[in-house]
Amino acid sequence: MIAIGHGTLSLIYNVHYESNYFIMSLLTTEQAVALAPDDASVKAARGLARPGKWASLGQNGHALWGECKGSALYQVCADPSEPAFKCTCPSRKFPCKHALGLLLLTASQPEMAITSEPPDWMNEWLAKRAQSAKRKAARANADTDLDPGQHAKRAAAKDKRTTERQRKIEGGLEELERWLRDLVRQGLAHAQQQPARYWDDMAARLVDAQAPGLARWLRNLASIPASGEGWAERLLAQLGSLYLLLEAYRRLAALPEPLQADIRSRIGWSWQEGDLPAEAWVRDRWLMLGQRGYEEEQLRVRRTWLWGRESGRLALVLDFAYQSQPMPPIAAPGTWLEAELGFFPSHYPQRALLRNPVTVEEQGMPQALTGNAALLEAYAEALAQQPWLGILPAVLAEVTPVRGEAGVGWLRDQAANRLPITAGFNEGWRLLALSGGAPLTVFGEWNGQQFWPLSAWTDGRFAAF
After folding, report:
1. Listed residue (413, 421, 418) closest to 449, CA to CA
2. Which helix (H) or strand (E) holds 396?
3. pLDDT value at position 22?
4. What is the Cβ-side half-sphere exposure of residue 189, based on CA atoms within 13 angstroms?
5. Helices and strands, counts by H and E, the chain
6. Fewer beta carbons under 10 A from the terminal one: N or C of the chain?
7. What is the β-pairing status of strands 407-412 and 352-360?
8. SS3 letters for 411-441?
């Protein structure tokens, strides 16, 4: 078993030999599916994941290739370690159905990709990729070869950019405060009558002010006035939280550093691996608890929750893909990984970067909260530490799913307290079937109003939704 690192992600290569071929199973079926730009591509790719659809297949221990039979003979290249793909078909999706079909076929039947010399068209693609990697390495080496004076100039330029961004953000926050005061003075009923442009225009000005986190927050507020009964209370709570953030930013220097980091993150500052100190990294055996994907503007977002066997910590790993670009491959829920997680600075750390994961055999499950009241207490404690915490991950013990008007509507604990399940959860039938009317242990996300189940345990069995 060889672990090959790439950025914050590593793929596990299981290697073995048989007679006249060399098998390298790079991706599981689940990981291949996770790369798909949409469900339609997965469906089409499954139809191509059969040997009869391919005129040739091969690999050289680093990449895969094949010629897929269609309206033409399409030449398909794939390097799952990046991941990277190329196909001669006219599709604008990335990866296309042919590249996905190649990955699905080799995941289920790795012996079909016999080790051989790549064809000329594959060698050409590999050569271009090698040249690109060489140029990237040269740029990295050039950075390390800078003399002290050049380093000082770069540091000064970075400080100048940071100062300029802070100036823009401060101007954007002043404009946002005026906008909020006008909204409250006119009344929430006035806000309910406004078109989406009312919210989008202010959000666009925040983007110009380099505060993308606030812009996303404002766009999300636009849907509240049309969300039904209780919308005014929900909108007022969000506006109050937003105004609290503006006041906190004014007093940023007087606040503890972890809370400063929370405020900056909510506004839109991002963290890179190099920004994290050594003590932020935690090595452990992590259980993949659950995943959830959704779209946010032109981005596809994947949320993955992990639990550390020894540390007992819950961590959130976020992956992003622009439009039809593939998501980076990651292990499926229920998998155990030995890895390092680097936690972002926060008064209530959750988000982390995953580094050098290796699949391992392990057992265990997180400690569960007993009763829905315990969840509310835990959420209140978390908000006391981080007032802008959007989601609390939680494991609930001995809860029974209860049907509502449109499928599963509640989780009922042993004291008959009911916890509402979000209307967006579309796997209610699976949760009901898993329960069979009996209590079970459920992991999911609580946003203060609704619970989104992501996985469950019953009779020692783990199931992800």
Report:
1. 421
2. strand 392-404
3. 38
4. 0
5. 12, 19
6. N
7. unpaired
8. EECCCCCEEEECCCCCCHHHHHHHHCCCCEE
CA 158 to chain centroid, in Å, comes to 28
Question: What value does the CA radius of gyration of the chain take, rounded to a whole number of Å?
Answer: 25
Structure tokens at 206: 């925040």
Q: Which residues contact 200 (CB under 8 A, 6 or more apart)?
A: 219, 222
Q: Judge contact between 313 and 348, C-beta under 8 A.
A: no
Residue type at position 193:
Q
How far apart are the C-alpha atoms of 426 and 399, rounded to whole Å? 19
Q: What distances in angstroms separate CA 399 from CA 290, 312, 432, 433, 442, one per listed residue? A: 18, 22, 12, 14, 7
What residue type is assigned to position 167 of the chain?
R
Residue 292, class by beta-carbon neighbours within 10 Å (0-12 exposed, 13-18 middle, 19+ buried)?
A: middle
Cis peptide preceding 83, ω within 30 of 0: yes
* pTM (two decimals): 0.75
- State residue 272's pLDDT score: 83
**Average confidence (pLDDT) per 10 residues, the chain, 465 residues:** 32 35 58 82 92 92 89 90 86 88 90 88 90 77 66 76 89 95 93 90 94 92 90 94 95 93 92 87 96 83 94 94 76 92 95 92 93 95 93 96 81 94 85 92 94 92 91
What is the secondary structure of 187-234 as a DSSP string?
Answer: -HHHHHTS-HHHHHHHHHHHHHTT-HHHHHHHHHHTTGGGS-TTHHHH
Query: How many whole angstroms separate alpha carbon 355 and alpha carbon 352?
Result: 10
Spatial separation of the C-alpha atoms in residues 182 and 184, rounded to whole Å: 6
Query: What is the bridge-based pairing of β-strands 9-18 and 21-25?
Result: antiparallel
The pLDDT value given to residue 243: 95
Instruction: Give the tokens for residue 156.
Output: 């000064």
The count of other CB atoms within 10 Å of the CB of residue 39 is 9
Cβ burial 119-152 (10 Å sphere, 16+ → b, else e): eeebeebbeebeeeeeeeeeeeeeeeeeeeeeee
